[in-house]
Structures are given as structure tokens and as C-alpha cells.
Design goal:
By secondary structure, the protein is an all-alpha fold. It has helices at residues 7-26, 31-38, 42-49, 59-69, 73-77.
């Protein structure tokens, strides 16, 4: 499997990473806490969330992150994921 991300998927990986970061923050989790729950390193999670780094990752990692965030993996992949719909399930101090 190639580690090179096709140009057409580049923005998808960026959006997915930003979605993961946003939900993690709404859940009140640090990168270290989420990484531990998802059984990955903090630096790996950091590279997934970073918008300036294109980090492809496996479906297994996606499922691990989704489970750790208590959300369906499909919701993370949905480009129109409405974070507001889930705000009542997420403890957020604004």
C-alpha cells in the first residue's frame, strides 16, 4: 500500500483530521488521552489532526478513534458532519 495520498483525497484527510480534533476538544480530551484510548501514540494522533500534514491512516485506526470518541466512524467520515447536532451529548463549557 502506498503512503502517498492522491491529490483528490488530500482535502478529505485534512477535513477528517480537523473533525477528529474538534470532537476531541468538545469531549474535553487531550491528544494524549484520546491517543491512549485509541491505542495509538500521541504524535501519530497529532499528525492526523494537523491540517498542514497529510497523514493517511487505516480503517482500523479510524474505528479506534471513533470508539474512543464514542461516535460512529461513519459520522467522522460524513463531510457535512453537523457538530451542533451532537453538542447536547458533549459536555462543552463555552
Amino acid at each position: 500500500m502506498s503512503k502517498i495520498v492522491e491529490f483528490r483525497n488530500r482535502d478529505r484527510f485534512i477535513e477528517l483530521g480537523l473533525t477528529i480534533a474538534a470532537i476531541r476538544k468538545m469531549r474535553g480530551l487531550s491528544q494524549e488521552e484520546l491517543a491512549e484510548k485509541a491505542n495509538i501514540s500521541r504524535s501519530y494522533l497529532s499528525s492526523i489532526e494537523a491540517p498542514n500534514i497529510i497523514r493517511p491512516f487505516s480503517v482500523e485506526i479510524l474505528y479506534n478513534i471513533a470508539d474512543a470518541l464514542d461516535i460512529k466512524a461513519g459520522s467522522l467520515l460524513n463531510s457535512g458532519f453537523p457538530l451542533e447536532e451532537h453538542s447536547n451529548k458533549i459536555n462543552v463549557n463555552l
